[in-house]
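Hi,

Apologies if this is the wrong queue. I'm a grad student, and the batch job for glutathione transferase from Balaeniceps rex produced an output file that my downstream script rejects. I'm not sure whether the problem is my script or the file. Here is the sequence I used:
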Amino acid sequence: MSRKPRLTYCNGRGRMEPVRWLLAAAGVEFEENFLETREQYEKLIKDGVLMFQQVPLVEIDGMKMVQTRAILSYIAGKYNLYGKDLKERALIDMYVEGITDLMQMILTFPFSPPEAKEKNLDSIKERATNRYFPVFEKVLKQHGQEFLVGNKFSWADVQLIEAILAVEEKIPAVLLGFPQLQAFKIRMSNMPTIKKFLQPGSPRKPPPDEHYIETVLKIFKK
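Support response: The file is valid. Your script probably expects a header line. Output copied below for reference.
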């Protein structure tokens, strides 16, 4: 029996993508089981595999874990990406929660109606440049270190580089005016495990396309 973590989700980014990012950044290989039909999803529910009848599902260390935040914090703790003490964990948690708020806007964007896309894109740009990215620009400038917390690579760094790249896909010039984040992006993208994850053929998923959107709606929308 394989000891690799097994990830069950649709074949796309969604709420599983930060899990893929964190495992990859930790240098952990994993397997994926892609949901393609509503029947597969309903069978997981019927079998009692999904505690709250929701995916992502990650099978790791003999557990069937659900709820993205719980999965991510477990992986971060297991692979020493969660700070050295409670104060560092609190900082990481705050940064991660903020990034997650921004990423929620990215997550829902492909599902917005055509007439709302321009407005939603403007909202993403406004939030990124006025609320979220200035926080991390200031943190990096004030402490002058390479990483966000404790001068050590952590879960917060992984979440931030994922968010930067996701926003840049939609707004290429979003980092103009954020020199610290520009340098951070270069550093993180050249870390060996992340550099590998950014290469073609890695488990990183492409931006959502029409097929992915149709699949998600078919499986989860009642």
